[in-house]
């Protein structure tokens, strides 16, 4: 690399993502001050002895994503200051102990995504162990680990063995790591057995055992893990029932993941004593019910995910099919609760009253037909509610009112046929309201009154044929930015109702309605940035107005609107145009004369027959990145058809 001869004080050199196949010492002789060298994503197959001999100051070396099979004993000679070595994603079969033994200050070694099959204290014995803190060997093919494999590493903090083929793991493997190991990952192996003795890792803070085949854990295995903060047992699909003694020693545990473990029931005292727990992940199990003491005295809990179970009730004896407030006897810390995708039919009015700091409630895809206002009326910190995919039929007066921090409300895919005009009263910070997929044929004029800024309103897939005049006047809604009215029954575009918001509306979706006519020179159509009128039976007059009258639209969808001919587009800022599924047989040369910013054009499913006639058109579209001409009637493609699409 002669080019480097004159930059002898270079400290950082990135040669990644080239086509280098070899590198030797002569290439780097003039770069003796290098501290960081990245050779990743090349085709290097071997490292010659002495390649890095002159790089006495190098601290970081990345040779990942190459084609190395071995690292010769002398390959890393001279790297006396190296701290981080990344050799992941090569084809290395054996950990290069002798080569690593020449790195006296190595602290991080990454050998992920290789083909290392064997590890032992003998293989690792040559490695300079005094400073090594991070060792990652994930996604290799290691099947077993002898006793004392890592005993030379007295200062190892993190060990990652995830994605191997380990079947048995026990305390003897970790001999020597008692005083140092903080983070242990054994996920995505084939572990069935953790032995019967304590793991012997009292300093451990994080342990990941997810994605294994663990069905049971003997009583003493976790007995010395009193400092553990994060435990992930998810994806052990036969880990049921969870032994009631399992978590008792973990007094400092803050995050526990038992998702996707096939759990059918939880003993009432499983979480007893976990006073520091903040996050509980129990989703994707087979829970049918929860006993009344399950979450008792978890004073610091802020997050519970119970989604994707089969909960039909939470049983405080007398309440069948009830989600009763006393069940969560946890004080006032709960902020996030996910009970979506269960079979709950009713929430007792006091369910959330003892959780005044609740911010997020996800209860979608259950069987609720009624949602009492008392459930959330006292939750002054509530920001997000998702009740989509239930069987709610009406939204009554004040159901979602007086919630000063509520930002997002999702009520899609219920059976709503009516909404009280006072339903959102004084919830002035609402920004997203999703009412799509219901049976609404009318929205009252005052429904959104008092809301400061509506970022997105989704009223698609309902039965609306008109919008109440004045419902979006600025004295009711200060700002409306995006609205979806697709798949309704509009015969006239409700532009008059939206008129007062013409300075703010960015996106308007009116697709799949019955609209034929559009008013000329309408301010909404003139100022809108993203407009979808696809699959409406638009008249020729309406189409002419869209094409010929000046507009600032950036994205325009007119697919399936009956277009048979196109005139010159007066949309100089447009970047995306969809006119597919029409009857277009030719495109005049000057159609795109003013659309020089166009990046995406969809002309598919039309009657275009001659590509030759389109060649002059392409010369206008110098910014075009995506072009769809599928499902037309072209018979011949010649070399020059696309020559103007460079």
UniProtKB/TrEMBL annotation:
Name of the protein described by the UniProt record: Chaoptin
Q: What keywords were assigned to this record?
A: Leucine-rich repeat, Repeat
Q: Is Zinc included in the keywords of this UniProt record?
A: no
Tell me the first and last residues of the signal peptide: none
Presence of keyword Electron transport: no
| SMART domains membership | LRR_BAC, LRR_SD22, LRR_TYP
Cross-referenced Pfam families, in alphabetical order? LRR_1 (PF00560), LRR_8 (PF13855)
Q: Which Gene3D superfamilies match?
A: Ribonuclease Inhibitor (3.80.10.10)
């Amino acid at each position: 690399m002669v080019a480097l001869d004159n930059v002898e004080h270079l400290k950082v050199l990135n040669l990644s993502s080239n086509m280098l196949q070899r590198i030797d010492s002569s290439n780097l002789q003039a770069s003796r001050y290098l501290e960081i060298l990245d050779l990743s994503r090349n085709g290097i197959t071997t490292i010659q002895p002495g390649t890095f001999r002159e790089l006495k100051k190098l601290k970081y070396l990345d040779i990942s994503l190459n084609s190395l099979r071995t690292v010769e004993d002398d390959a890393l000679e001279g790297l006396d200051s190296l701290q981080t070595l990344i050799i992941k994603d090569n084809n290395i079969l054996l950990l290069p102990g002798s080569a690593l033994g020449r790195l006296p200050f190595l602290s991080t070694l990454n050998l992920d995504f290789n083909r290392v099959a064997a590890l032992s204290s003998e293989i690792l014995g040559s490695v300079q162990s005094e400073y090594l803190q991070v060792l990652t060997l994930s996604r290799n093919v290691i099947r077993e680990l002898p006793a004392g494999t890592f005993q030379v590493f007295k200062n190892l903090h993190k060990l990652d063995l995830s994605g191997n083929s380990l079947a048995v793991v026990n305390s003897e493997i970790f001999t020597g790591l008692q005083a140092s190991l903080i983070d242990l990952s054994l996920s995505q192996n084939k572990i069935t057995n953790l032995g019967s003795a304590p793991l012997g890792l009292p300093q451990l803070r994080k342990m990941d055992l997810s994605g294994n085949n663990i069905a049971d854990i003997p009583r003493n295995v976790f007995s010395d893990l009193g400092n553990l903060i994060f435990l992930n047992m998810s994806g052990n699909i036969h880990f049921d029932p969870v032994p009631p003694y399992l978590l008792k020693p973990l007094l400092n545990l803050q995050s526990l993941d038992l998702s996707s473990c096939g759990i059918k029931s939880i003993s009432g005292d499983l979480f007893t004593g976990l006073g520091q727990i903040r996050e509980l992940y129990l989703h994707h199990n087979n829970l049918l019910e929860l006993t009344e003491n399950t979450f008792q005295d978890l004073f610091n809990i802020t997050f519970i995910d119970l989604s994707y179970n089969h909960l039909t009730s939470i049983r405080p004896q007398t309440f069948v099919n009830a989600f009763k407030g006393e069940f969560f006897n946890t004080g006032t810390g709960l902020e996030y609760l996910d009970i979506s995708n269960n079979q709950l039919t009713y929430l007792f009015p006091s369910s959330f009253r003892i959780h005044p700091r609740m911010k997020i409630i996800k209860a979608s895809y259950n069987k609720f037909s009624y949602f009492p206002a008392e459930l959330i009326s006292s939750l002054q910190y509530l920001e997000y509610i998702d009740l989509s995919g239930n069987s709610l039929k009406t939204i009554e007066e004040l159901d979602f009112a007086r919630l000063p921090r509520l930002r997002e409300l999702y009520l899609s895919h219920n059976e709503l046929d009516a909404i009280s005009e006072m339903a959102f009263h004084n919830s002035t910070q609402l920004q997203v309201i999703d009412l799509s997929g219901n049976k609404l044929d009318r929205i009252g004029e005052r429904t959104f009154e008092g809301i400061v800024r509506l970022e997105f309103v989704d009223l698609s897939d309902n039965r609306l044929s008109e919008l109440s005049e004045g419902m979006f006047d600025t004295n009711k809604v200060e700002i409306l930015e995006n609205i979806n009215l697709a798949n309704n029954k509009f015969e006239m575009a409700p532009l008059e109702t939206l008129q007062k918001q013409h300075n703010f509306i960015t996106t308007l979706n009116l697709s799949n309605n019955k609209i034929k006519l559009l008013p000329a020179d309408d301010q909404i159509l003139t100022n809108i940035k993203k407009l979808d009128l696809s699959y409406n039976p638009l008249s020729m007059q309406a189409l002419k107005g869209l094409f010929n009258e000046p507009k600032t639209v950036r994205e325009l969808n007119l697919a399936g609107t009956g277009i048979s001919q196109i005139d010159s587009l007066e949309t100089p800022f447009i970047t995306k145009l969809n006119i597919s599924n029409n009857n277009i047989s030719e495109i005049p040369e000057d159609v795109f004369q003013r659309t020089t910013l166009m990046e995406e054009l969809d002309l598919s499913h039309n009657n275009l027959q001659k590509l030759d006639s389109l060649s002059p058109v392409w010369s206008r579209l110098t910014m075009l990145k995506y072009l769809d001409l599928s499902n037309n009637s072209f018979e011949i493609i010649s070399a020059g058809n696309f020559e103007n699409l460079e």
